[in-house]
């Protein structure tokens, strides 16, 4: 049916008699167009920022010694990739940081979910332990780095411990709140049908809290990276934090920004992987309606 779908602004408007297939096709077209518009704006803003930064550096509006330039940072990254750093291969340092962050992330996430669900399901235990959890959570995480390094040394355990602490409380808080926000009517219906506590937790509580848990996992890996890097910055023999510490000590601005870009790329890649995993696990959820505004 020709001319059955018109567009007003970004949102498609459909005439009477439009088939479901035509509506779906028009909605998909509008969604695709929106994605390209968003991508074009993102690339344009990034290009403008980098271009202005390079121009300001070339014309000495800013001091290149302190602020470097996109070209200088790209050269340093290429040097690290092709020739390595003065203290070893870039991939070795990146691997060390990733190992510390991944171990801390996995242990912190699993522990946070288990403790959050357990305390969310046990009101008495949560009331007893809440004061201790709040007290520990009130400690700034970065001040724990020198303590862990002093107790556990410069190796892997101290960095994993800090990454664990950074992740645990984020995941715990969301898992706990997700359990508390579970639909009480569904829980009551499950109990009426004879479900045990474990069946209620597995089939009602956990699916309900899954959105809360994944929301915390999306941000907690970046916290694990931060924990590992802060630990390396305080004291280590390898890792991205170690490269940042060396660059700081030698006033290598390009090296500092290059290390920051590496962290950004790794974190965004982990965010993408986490989104894929979430979409796969939560396929049962209804798809969100098209929003083109």
UniProtKB/TrEMBL annotation:
Family: Belongs to the binding-protein-dependent transport system permease family.
Domain ABC transmembrane type-1 as annotated: residue spans: 94-274
Pfam families for this protein: BPD_transp_1 (PF00528)
GO BP: any one term: transmembrane transport
Membrane topology annotation: Multi-pass membrane protein
Alphabetized UniProt keyword annotations: Cell membrane, Membrane, Transmembrane, Transmembrane helix, Transport
InterPro entries for the chain: MetI-like (IPR000515), MetI-like_sf (IPR035906)
Location relative to the cell: Cell membrane
Residues annotated as transmembrane: 36-56, 101-119, 131-154, 160-179, 200-217, 223-244, 256-277
Main location, first listed in the record: membrane
One GO CC term, this protein: plasma membrane
Gene3D superfamilies: MetI-like (1.10.3720.10)
Name listed for the protein in its UniProt record: ABC transporter permease subunit
